[in-house]
Amino acid sequence: MTTEKVRILIIGSGPAGYTAAIYASRANLSPVLYQGLEPGGQLTTTTEIENFPGYPEGTTGPALMEDLRKQAERLGTSIRTGIVTSCDFSARPFKVVIEDTHTVEADAVIIATGATARYLGLESEMKFRGMGVSACATCDGFFYRKKDVAVVGGGDTACEEATYLASLCRKVYMIVRKNYLRASKAMQDRVFNTPNIEVIFEHNTKEVLGDDNGVTGALLVGNDGSERTIAIDGFFLAIGHTPNTKVFGGQIELDSEGYIKVEPGTSKTNIKGVFAAGDVKDPHYRQAITAAGSGCIAALDAERFLNGME
Ligand code: NDP
Predict the structure, then answer these.
(1) How confident is residue 47, by pLDDT bands cut at 50, 70 and 90?
(2) Helices marked H in the chain — which ranges?
(3) Going by CA atoms, what residue is nearest to atom 9 of ligand 1?
(4) Pick the catalytic residue: 139, 148, 233, 282?
(5) Ligand 1 atom closest to 178 (CA)
(6) How many A from CA of 286 to the centre of ligand 1?
(7) Average pLDDT for residues 222-241, to the nearest whole number?
(8) I want to staple 16 with a disulfide (CB 3.0 to 4.6 A). Which of 98, 113, 158, 291 is the partner?
(9) CA 265 to each of CA 19, 96, 280, 281, 294: distance values in angstroms, whole numbers, following the listed order
(10) From the candidates 140, 148, 279, 282, which is the catalytic residue?
């Protein structure tokens, strides 16, 4: 086991991690950033991005993340690849073990490991990811203007995404496996009062259909065994996200869904010197720009902590 000592360790390489790195670098904190299994985070699974400020012609997820990485690197962040396999936040310096072989001792840690959208696990769904299959209506809905789409799920996210898509698309199907929506009453009312949303209760998706140009439909199977095909151009998953916090369990306070709890309006966790940014602490907004903003907040909180200002 090798050991090194750093002032600030950033775990995660999405917009939150890179933005924290940019700010920490400029504060002369010589940050070390570890990127995990999905360098660049969830955005690298998106194609076009039109809602990140500063790109008048739009950009792509991978290009945006590459720009953020280069910016962090140019300003002095040491970017490494490796999975965190354990950590010890019980005393300072904090100890974070990478791949069971290397220990990083850090005076401050920023956790920006993100969340992973849940998928149904169908082969056809994987095949058309980025070609009509998406787990983010806010990111990709715009590309389906005046087209027909489907949203899978019956929670608040599914209802919110369905109503958002209904404002852009011709028709939105909601595919719900139970005979009721789990969402709050207010969200349900919005769905039921939107004329171009059709809720298909008690159905699951058997297969996403498509051709070389992308998604063309979905084959649904009812709880009674009957099959039905719908013609759609976009297939949106809204069946929840899983925050990537497994390795921090027992070390840091998480909510019932596994998201890191922070002091409202800050990045401060229950451990002084450990901060959280981005989707790993945000089940609601989940946008690249909000993650980036929270990465900035985490770096500023960490800087104040390291300078003994709190
Ligand atoms: P939820 O866990 O609340 O809902 C997930 C939905 O997906 C459920 O309807 C569930 O069905 C369905 N689902 C799960 N797995 C499958 C599957 N394999 N096949 C088909 N359907 C499936 O997740 P959300 O992302 O909607 O919400 C997460 C949290 O965030 C909630 O607490 C929610 O209230 C909150 N939220 C609040 C918002 C707001 O207040 N504006 C907006 C968005 C989220 P089933 O019901 O059968 O389990």
Answers:
(1) low
(2) 15-26, 61-74, 123-127, 137-140, 156-166, 185-192, 288-306
(3) 154
(4) 139
(5) 47
(6) 14
(7) 97
(8) 291
(9) 17, 26, 15, 12, 9
(10) 140
